[in-house]
Every structure is written in C-alpha cells, then in structure tokens.
Design a protein that fits this description.
Elements (H helix, E strand, L loop, with lengths): L3 E5 L2 H12 L7 H12 L9 E7 L2 E9 L3 E5 L6 H11 L5 E4 L1 H15 L2 E13 L10 E4 L5 H15 L5 H13 L3 E6 L2 E8 L6 E8 L9 H15 L3 E7 L3 H10 L1 E13 L1
Parallel strand pairs: 4-5, 10-11
Antiparallel strand pairs: 1-2, 2-3, 3-4, 5-12, 6-11, 6-12, 7-8, 8-9, 9-10
Length: 280
Amino acid sequence: MTPAIRATGDPVEFKATVFPFLQRDPVLNTALLSNVDGRIQGIMHDPEPPLFVSLHDGDEVVGAVVSTALRGIILGALADDLVPPLVDVLAELVPGADSVEGTPSAARLFAELFAARVGKSFQEIRGLRLHQLITFAEQKAAGTPRLAKETDLEVAAELFRGYSAELGHDSTGATAHEWLRRRIGLERVWLWEDSERVVSLVGQNATIFGATRVGPVYTPPKYRGHGYASALTAHVTQQIRATGSEACLFTDLANPTSNKIYHQIGYRPVADFVGFSFQL
C-alpha cells in the first residue's frame, strides 16, 4: 500500500483528523496524544513551528507522526511498511530533523533511509519502554506527598533542571519555570516532602481517552535510596486510578533501577521504543 500523506502545521486540524485513529489504543499512543493536546492547550512550545503528518489508506487514517524542533520526529507505533513513503515526504519537509523515535524496527528503518536521503549519519541514543499499570501495590517512604503550589516554583524548577540535565536536554531557567507554572496551575505536578525538604518530583499528563501518563519522575542524587520516587509515583498512580483512568509511563531501558521500581508498583511492559539522532 502506498499511503496518501498529508501535512499541516495546525494541531487542531491534526487532532480532528487522527485522534479517532489514535484513541483505539490510548496507552500505546500516549506520546502522540499528549504531544498534540499539549500544543492545543498552549502548555508546549517550540522554537520552530511543528509539523503534523497523517497517513491515509483511502478514507482511513493508518498512521500519525509529529515532527518538532525539541523532540524530533515521533513515529509512535507506525507500521514498518509505512516508513519508506513517509521518509520521501519528510526528507523534503524537515531535512534538518535531528532525531527520530518509534518502535525498534520502524525507527531503525526510518533512520537508515532518512540519513541516506539527507546525507547524514545516525546513531542510537535511547531506548524506552512503555508500561501500563496492571495491579497496584502501595509504596512507603518517610515523608508525605502533596500537589505543588505556585510558591513551590523555584524548588520545582531546580528539580526539573536536574531531570533535564540527566536526559541531556537543554532546560534554561525560563523554560523550566514556564513548563512548571502551567502544569502546577493544572494540578499536574506532585512533590514528596520529608523533614520540610522537597526531595522528589513527579508529573502527570492530561487524561486523554481514559489514559493518563505519569512523568517526569525525578529525585536529586543526594536524596536517592530512600524510596521517595517510588512512593510518590505510587501515590500519583493511585490518584489516577481513583478517576477510573488507565495509568501508564515510560522508563529508560538503560536504567534497571527505575524499571524495578515501577514493576514493584504494578506496572508491566507494553512496548519498546528507540530513538536515533542524526549528524552531519
């Protein structure tokens, strides 16, 4: 099948086109759904306009892809056979894209074809595993959880900058403050406090089609080893469950500790995703 491919810079138009397709599996498609929803809500911004691409077989949507300056090309769970025609289009529209992320086979195929088309090399930069909560087990730690408030902005921004730095992302003070201010206002940032010290941060994304993704999760190195992140993630997960939503999250495959922690809470693997970067 050679799909028809449509591109737009309008997230509202893209949502109307692809969300009925993506909502068939809101957990598997959580990254794409929250990415588009965040831009419509005005809580995600890019230094350059994003590109939204839909793939069609006749009247049926068969794939959805987002390309942004900060996140690169996000393939989601795009089928392997749709990759070559997509590369033909994106090599023309976004030849300067710096990365791609998707299922292991689709992402590697895209990286190989795209790099050859635009005259770049590529290398694997990350492996992620998507998990969904199946059972739930509460986790204990000294201290208590609470929603972040506007007055927590400075300490929360410090934690967020630490999180970004560990991922290799550039997060200036202004970026961290803006990201957090909007999400604190939406009650999507949680803190764990022990002995009047904020020791861990956990965020949650919007609930879309009955699925809510937990993240980011971060504890500064000096506070690790006390179960703070585990207890706070479990608490946030419990709040999500109370609304009747499915809870999900991503883990770094290179971090066995985090994978173990989430398994103890009751999360189980759904799918793996791989990221590749492009270089001249």
